[in-house]
Amino acid sequence: MPRPLLFNAFEMPVPVHQSPGLWRHPEDESRNYASPAHWEREARTIEAAGFHGIFLADVLGLYDVYGASPDAALRGGVQVPQLDPLLLAPLLARATEHLAVGVTASVTYAAPYDLARRFATLDALTDGRIAWNVVTSYQESAALNLGLGTQLPHDERYDRADEYMDVVYALWEGSYEEDAYTADRDSGVVVDPAKVRGAGHHGTYFDVTAPSLTAPTRQRTPYLFQAGASPRGLAFAAKHAEAVFFSGPTPEHVARWTGRLREEAETAGRDPRSVKAFTNVAVVVAETGDAARERLAEYTRYVDVPAALALFGGWTGVDLSDADPDAPLEHVETDANRSALASFTTMDPDAAWTPRRVAEFVAIGGRGPVITGSPEEVADEVERWARVADVDGFNVNACVRPADFERFGRFVAPVLRERGLLEPARGTSDDDAVSSVRSAREVFGGAGPRLPRDHPGAAHRR
Amino acid sequence: MPRPLLFNAFEMPVPVHQSPGLWRHPEDESRNYASPAHWEREARTIEAAGFHGIFLADVLGLYDVYGASPDAALRGGVQVPQLDPLLLAPLLARATEHLAVGVTASVTYAAPYDLARRFATLDALTDGRIAWNVVTSYQESAALNLGLGTQLPHDERYDRADEYMDVVYALWEGSYEEDAYTADRDSGVVVDPAKVRGAGHHGTYFDVTAPSLTAPTRQRTPYLFQAGASPRGLAFAAKHAEAVFFSGPTPEHVARWTGRLREEAETAGRDPRSVKAFTNVAVVVAETGDAARERLAEYTRYVDVPAALALFGGWTGVDLSDADPDAPLEHVETDANRSALASFTTMDPDAAWTPRRVAEFVAIGGRGPVITGSPEEVADEVERWARVADVDGFNVNACVRPADFERFGRFVAPVLRERGLLEPARGTSDDDAVSSVRSAREVFGGAGPRLPRDHPGAAHRR
User: Fold this and answer.
1) Do the Cβ atoms of B76 and A35 come within 8 Å?
2) Which residues pair with B278 in a beta bridge?
3) Domain containing residue A384: CATH number
4) Which portions of the chain have biased composition (kind: Basic and acidic residues) (chains A, B) (predicted)?
């Protein structure tokens, strides 16, 4: 019997998340990205489709590598205009019954004392269904406008992030004993001060002495996601993250990363299987394989090439704005951009890479595979990916939003359920008491709503 | 015919906002401060009671003057534990039809580029029903834990806040032309870059060159509240605020401030009547005056003296922890605290002030009056206050939450409506099309959802 897999809908409150041009598809609703009712409907669609969670990406800056200007990103709506994902999260949770809600937030923009309060608030307002995608890096264009000066060197950024996590663990896990907040009318005591202690943190980057501003919430520490591939990044992820994202072109490629992740987790003293590995996929599915391939061809016709190259430029630092979109890519290679291009072109070494081909690749698959076919074909490929890559789940990209999520639920989920690869559909509040709603940590396989004992955050408990 | 007045419910997501001890009253529900369903119900109660808006206070630190420790504040639940009010705002708006939602946010904790995105997101998610209470100051205890070092000198803090406002206006008002965001499928253009420009701000405190990350929302700039009483604070408020809060013990006292505010607004080139003046009141009402006074006596018995003195200590810097609660206050006066105490004791110069009397005063009325009586008596006093103080509206404090808001709606609102002092009850979505829902700016008397032409933010428009 295979173990069930985990599925997140990967989203962003923007006109274009990862598929430039596809907003023009007649079924796409991304133009409504700023409407709360749109997001409430979409969250319900995603929940009904069988996803475990919705994950919201974030970037606090504009993509301005392509043509050394944000114009292509603006014209194509590439992750701009946008909303702050944290403010959307409570609405997504209130509109659904048991969907976990993941949000991206950088350890760079807010003081840990402030961000700790925000995530405790989110944990309260979602009744423990919140997950935090911890981001350590940021764009230079964001840093500039946020008044942050130049970035720290790569490894030092992780040192600072390590200390940041220590502070927020001290606040979430160590500050209040379990029964410190009673608000007991007979005793007249709201919080017993003897059961509260200050964070008492004096470090290299932060000094936080006060206790948490928030009482313990259902999870205390939000469920922690992270993405990291460099050696230092992987060590950080293996220490702190409960689930890790990684994109790769083949399951074998991802398997090498998964192996390193599990080794690092073991080195860090954690159960290597307790760290969930997720990889990105795009799924294009229809009743038959032919219909699915036709749909993929249709999607491809909607790709906005300059906009996709603006996204590619932001990811790689390579500006393809001067290149003939249909000329072989070798002509625009320089020493500076060769390795960046290589990270893409090696995904399909036999392809005749041109800027247009890069754009189509980015816009349909992002940095992961596109699984196209009938429901059975897609389920086969999902199963193969999970087995070979040794991942626990997938972040599913939608080219057409939210239609592709709805189609995943309609076509793929039933086949996955038949095979035991997806848990049975969960009841609604009519037949499922609220108290049985799982926290995000339990949705993703945790034994309970709190950090496991072998997690470094648990060391801050009294 | 009198002009209708404006009423905000003054709230905070904490066990105790301004009335330490009153959470023990059998009708009080503040212990549920961390429950989203509690706040959705309360927002609906406040809307049904006829209030124009709900206003959420905020403070990112603990009250630790009393006994040089946060223990009394923790034990009494005085504004701790808490939630981040910004994250609560979208839920309050979604749970109601037309209630304006005001939130407090400091210009100290977030970069203007970040906070501008947050308020644009809130304006989108509330469909233009958001107001921002601009706070320039902060507690030393907050600053310490947020890594902000020592505060700027008072007047320089306002210089920095002035520049901060310039940056956010440039982003909200100047960055996108009205029709820059089209997401037009035929043209394939999401945003026309020719209709977008960078903030281009190079100042003393901030450098923000990029365009806004957000497209124009219904209000663009959120409706702006502020509190300021010092000459520099009043000049800041008169320049930027569309509504200003001020607390005072008598309407005559408040009238002097209102006069100065209107003069300053005129000096700043604005219509002095376009700046709305609000003052704080607590209302204790019942069927008869005697029943109301009995209820006030009952409330007073619930006051938590040390917790109220912890709140008082936070406001004034005066630590009364060593004083006999029933000894005359003169005995604890020192040069250092005489003027701080004076700001309270002059509110009722004939009273025999003791620490207990200060605590009761704080816990029931805060820094404003307590209007107690039958519905007609309360309406009379509200009318007198509005006339003599020349205010446009009131921030109503509830001692028992949310019962006092519900009672205001049940007892006082009908009498105010009879007298033309409160606009008629607004319909629900059944008989009132969503398109007729007013923006916060219109709720508070503006001609439309956008800043008026004579507001300095409007100068950033193209």
Assistant:
1) no
2) B245, B393
3) 3.20.20.30
4) 451-462
